[in-house]
Amino acid sequence: MGPELITSLDQITPAWLTRVLRQNGFTEATVAEVSYQSSVTSFSITAHLRISYTRKSEAPDRLFLKFSKPIHPVSTPEGGWEVIFYRSIAPRTPPLLPRCYDAVFSSEQHKLHLLLEDFSDTHYSEPPSQLPPTRRNCELIVRSLADIHAASWERPPWNLIGFAQPDQTEVDRRIQDVRERIARFTDFLGDRLSEKQRAVYHDVLAALPKLYKRLIIPTAYTVIHDDIHIGNVLYHRDPTEETIRIIDWQTWFIDLAPRDLAHMMAIFWFPEQRRNLEKLLLRQYHERLRENGITNYSWEQLGSDYKLSVVRKLFHPAWQWDTGHEPNIWWNHLQRVMLAYEDLDCKELLQ
Q: Which residue of 137, 225, 286, 321 has the fewest C-beta atoms within 10 A of its own C-beta?
């Protein structure tokens, strides 16, 4: 009998939890009762579990369950992105992630579930919003990203996602894909896209063959989160503690490390916040990489790759539009990333 896929709250039973916990080494644990509080998001159903045992046990009395609405089969590799992450990547990553007790994906149903450590007692999450994190939390995030990036630095597990590092053929495919998507996106927007913004897309698309030559160079490739924002980070309730937890790894990928930094700052922040913190945070990130033993990546390389990542993030709102995200999400992202492109003088990369 294979692992049971959770697709309904009714399946959260003492018998199921007992089996899972015993498979995780809690061989004496017998669950007597389980209760939960559940909620629904755009992509999943979640439940905070409260567990009691028939006798005293070292097993956790709180766990977090996440199970999916249907996942589109074309966009999901065999095993499901997040299941692959928790099975194969998380065990090799610094302790900045929840412990995973169960991870199951059904290729027939295109659904998954994850049973994770629950940090509710010690950590809290900010509700997803347009507000940036505080300066202190920003510093904790970039330090944690540097730790995670360093763990797979220039030796990322390409085999797990069924791809290899981009070669010229793959780069050409990506360029064609971007050009087609941006053409559809700009046609849809019509005159809602300013002439200045339309010119940015025109110039960037024309320069892609030059810009994307960087993607063939093997430096700075690592496992990235690719959706870092205020709602995907858990902060410690004790303000003297500096441990955060980064969650929601459903869009993880292998790419240039600064892509995570560009996502957080160029997509979500307005110019004033970015100007105040951007260089400081990039410096702290670079110093943390060096503390982790990454000494072959210069400050100048980081700056250039960060600008390139901002340029590539110009295509993110179009991808969000193409995949059905709400306009209030991608329209705001579009405006901010355009401001970042101009503010950082990214046009110099096109020359």
A: 137
Is the Cβ–Cβ distance between 86 and 235 less than 8 Å?
no
pLDDT of residue 110: 83
Both structure tokens of 10:
């009714």
**What residue type is assigned to position 128 of the chain?**
P
**Highest mean pLDDT: which of 72-81, 122-131, 152-161?**
152-161
Total-model pTM: 0.91
pLDDT 10s digits, 86-108: 999 998 887 778 899 999 998 88
In contact, 123 and 64? CB cutoff 8 Å = no
Please enumerate in sequence order all residues whose Cβ is within 8 A of that of 267, keeping only pairs 6 or more positions apart, or say none. 229, 313, 316, 333, 336, 337
Amino acid at 63: L
pLDDT at 349: 96
